[in-house]
TrEMBL record:
Example GO molecular function: transcription cis-regulatory region binding
UniProt source species: Marinomonas aquiplantarum
PANTHER family hit by this protein: LACI-RELATED TRANSCRIPTIONAL REPRESSOR (PTHR30146), TRANSCRIPTIONAL REGULATORY PROTEIN (PTHR30146:SF152)
All residue ranges annotated as the HTH lacI-type domain in the record: 4-45
Keywords of this entry: DNA-binding, Transcription, Transcription regulation
GO terms (BP aspect): transmembrane transport
Top-level division of the source organism's lineage: Bacteria
UniProt entry tagged with the keyword Cell wall biogenesis/degradation: no
Protein name: LacI family transcriptional regulator
Gene3D superfamilies from the UniProt entry: 3.40.50.2300, lambda repressor-like DNA-binding domains (1.10.260.40)
InterPro entries: HTH_LacI, Lambda_DNA-bd_dom_sf, Peripla_BP_I, SBP_2_dom
Signal peptide: none
């Protein structure tokens, strides 16, 4: 293991040097969660050191995500892979990744980032007043916030990075129209209605169906948060109440659970369209359990996110960064 200074570890972990010293020397009276955070900080430093050989100005950025673990880890991998492409800077990322977290806990993490000298926050969180207000608080303290894959548009965030979610929903509707017979019922599965990006995908889907394919109807299914057990129970309950449900547009994940809910109740699944090419969806595509995945390149998103932050700090020239392009992935063009 590379030897990092106590100061480096403390900055990365967002704790005091004395706390790091107690953890490293195995002393008592350190909370278990604090020990885990210090150990995680060391791992983050090791990963980032492997990706970057830059020796220029140092930046500390925080990533706060409320998302299924499989997606958060994909984002973390994408961000780490791009650090070395933005030299000559030393970029240190502090990751705070949660499948289940309250709005007040997210607010606390954002405020802690401000207190710990963060120079930018990358955020995936619900579009709620408490989050808008906290983004504005960081902005007033000259800490830029980038919203990633789902937006908080009424806030003072400096940019949104990700796909055009309305157009993604319209694309899913178009593909559904091509694949399904008339009078099909499509379940539009959201992790939560509080995420702006998921609402926009659902809106795009409903708009296109209403305009172009009125014989297809949609049913919103929300509240599984992309977590296996929650999603499995939610889909099984919905299938019992909806005997005609035969297709899924999964906006918010939990796709393995969706497939297994249909299997356990011996129900046909005529069409399954998902989002994001994470490990779970790759496997489901390879097994031909999902027909199509609407994907975009997370590495490009990660690069754009970091570039926005460096532009804010006047370390890179301002350039136009377009929305990510949606790609349609099937079992037969999966790489």
């Amino acid at each position: 293991m590379k030897k990092f200074s106590v100061k480096q570890i403390a900055t990365q972990a967002g704790v005091s040097k004395a706390t790091v010293d107690r953890v490293l020397h195995g002393r008592n009276h350190v909370h278990h969660q604090t020990q885990k955070r210090v150990q995680q900080a060391i791992k983050e430093l090791e990963i980032q050191e492997a990706y970057s050989l830059a020796v220029g100005q140092t930046f500390h950025f925080d990533v706060i995500m409320h998302a299924p673990k499989r997606f958060s880890l994909a984002v973390q991998e994408a961000i780490n892979s791009q650090i070395g492409n933005l030299g000559p800077f030393r970029i240190h990322m502090r990751f705070h990744l949660f499948e289940e977290i309250s709005l007040t806990e997210i607010q606390s993490l954002m405020q802690q980032a401000m207190c710990n000298g963060s120079q930018g926050v990358i955020l995936k969180a619900a579009n709620e007043p408490i989050i808008q207000q906290t983004i504005n608080q960081l902005s007033e303290n000259r800490i830029p916030v980038i919203t990633l894959v789902t937006d908080v548009p009424q806030s003072q965030r400096i940019a949104y990075v990700g796909i055009d979610n309305v157009m993604a929903g319209r694309t899913a509707a178009y593909l559904s129209h091509l694949a399904l017979r008339s009078h099909s019922l499509v379940g539009v599965v959201l992790s939560s209605e509080r995420f702006q990006g998921e609402e926009e995908r659902e809106l795009g889907f409903r708009m296109w169906i209403k305009e172009r394919a009125p014989a297809i109807t949609s049913l919103t299914i929300s509240g599984g948060f992309g977590i296996y057990d929650h999603t499995l129970a939610l889909i099984k309950d919905t299938l019992k109440a909806q005997p005609n449900l035969n297709a899924i547009y999964s906006v918010g994940g939990g796709n393995r659970a969706i497939v297994e809910a249909f299997q356990q109740l011996n129900r046909p699944l005529d069409l399954f369209i998902g989002h994001d090419l994470d490990r779970e969806n790759r496997q489901l595509l390879a097994e031909e359990k999902i027909n199509m995945v609407l994907s975009h390149d997370l590495a490009i998103d990660a690069y754009h996110t970091l570039l926005h932050l460096l532009q804010f700090h006047r370390q890179k020239p301002k350039t136009f960064l377009p929305p990510s392009q949606v790609q349609v992935i099937t079992p037969f063009n999966l790489r």
